Amino acid sequence: MSRIAFIGLGNMGAPMALNLVKSGYKVLGFDLSSARSQQAHARGIPVARDPKSAIEGADIVITMLPTGKHVRMVWSGLCPLAEPGTLFMDCSTIDVESSRAIHEIAKEKGMLSLDAAVSGGSGGAQAATLVFTVGGDVPGFNKARPLFERMGKKTTLCGGPGAGQAAKLCNNMMLGIAMVGACEVFALSEKLGLTSKTMHEVLSTSSGQCWAATTYCPVPGPVPSSPANHGYKNGFSAKHMLKELKLAMEAASLTSSSTVLGTAAAQMYTLFENAGNSEVDFSGIIKMIRGAQNEADIPH
Ligand code: NAD
Q: Residue 95 Cα, ligand 1 centroid: separation in angstroms?
């Protein structure tokens, strides 16, 4: 059975590592923050004193870090120290350019490599229901396949280096645009005197159908599980959506792609975040779109 080094034991990394421990893998984690390392240790994840010790004897190294800069730094430091043939797999959400660059770093040192971005948030990490979009070669993918099954519910090999990260950013750009669209439609329909129940029913059964409106409905009532019914808490935060949109816009700029709606959505989420809504669920942007309209006046 593989021996796994897990670098980055934050909100996502710790529960992912724990699921591997629970599945019987020998895992040795590391986090720069001693508080995070101690918390992980208390939850049952063995922790190394430094990254070099974490990768000793490991045949798989997983990184779950904040940005491309962090991932490049860690892979540059660890790839020269690992046994050739070790699989390096990055699950962070980072820019496509960095994602491609880390594959090059790994290749130069004779390592297998994957970018394996995740969707599903910390709830999905805990419940092992993450969705992985993966980029890299088939041998690396086959080696990681059992791990995906322990940490998630669905995995797609999207193509070569960086393809997993690219697919995740494109999907989330679609989601950001769709949510802004759904919020504009619900806000308009309220002003036209339609109830949210009626509008939801029409959207769910007509050509305007989309996940943001029908499954993650941004107004309270029609979908009891959506964050709109829970004060726009505990969902996918606006700051995470903005991070995804910014990375997608960076990729668009590098490839001279026209993304008029993606740019508009990024601007709207920037306004929303700057108004103090970083931690609010991203569907809460409907409040900004409505303006200062009183929630109590809205027909449900
Ligand atoms: P986090 O800030 O909770 O955890 C990141 C951890 O990395 C921190 O504990 C930090 O101390 C550690 N770290 C930073 N540099 C390090 C280094 N050089 N060596 C070792 N450890 C280092 O972030 P998170 O919420 O766990 O997210 C991690 C990644 O996953 C991000 O790229 C994020 O965008 C992505 N992501 C997050 C979510 C989510 O809902 N939180 C969902 C999907 C993807």
A: 14
